[in-house]
Design a protein that fits this description.
InterPro entries: Glyas_Bleomycin-R_OHBP_Dase (IPR029068), Glyas_Fos-R_dOase_dom (IPR004360), VOC_core (IPR037523). Pfam families: Glyoxalase (PF00903). By secondary structure, the chain is α/β, with parallel strands linked by helices. It has one domain: 2,3-Dihydroxybiphenyl 1,2-Dioxygenase, domain 1, CATH 3.10.180.10. It has two helices and eight strands; from the N terminus they run βαββββαβββ. Helix 1 packs antiparallel against helix 2. It is globular and about 45 Å long.
Length: 123
């Protein structure tokens, strides 16, 4: 079971605004905050997401092949999350739509630091 996922950022203030809005759309607020780290989640509410300036002081970089998937309520919610991300400057990585034949519906994007995310719903 995943407790939380942490992504690196080089601009915590900018990234926090981006994730405040996305997590707000997911009915999730900040649960922890320090000078170099912010986390969103709900105690007992599943995996959370954190942003941090790297501990070693070096620039944050994007992990190739790494992606965070945000569980949406339905297809309209996927669209809303994806559109909000794009509106805030995220880069399109695949507009919302069906993927495969199993009822999987998702929209893919990269946050302002280049981290890849998607909003999805199954069935």
């Amino acid at each position: 079971m995943i407790g939380y996922v942490t992504l690196g950022t080089n601009d915590l203030e900018r990234a926090a605004k981006f994730y405040d809005r996305l997590c707000g759309l997911l009915d999730t607020g900040r649960m922890m905050e320090f000078d170099t780290f912010i986390a969103w989640g709900k105690p007992g509410g599943g995996a959370g997401i954190g942003l941090t300036k790297p501990y070693d002081g070096k620039p944050a970089t994007v992990g190739n092949g790494v992606m965070v998937a945000l569980a949406a309520r339905d297809k309209a919610h996927v669209d809303e999350i994806y559109n909000a991300a794009i509106e805030m400057g995220a880069k399109d990585e695949g507009a919302p739509g069906p993927r495969g034949d199993d009822g999987f519906y998702a929209g893919y994007f990269r946050d302002p630091d280049g981290n890849k995310l998607n909003a999805f719903v199954m069935g």
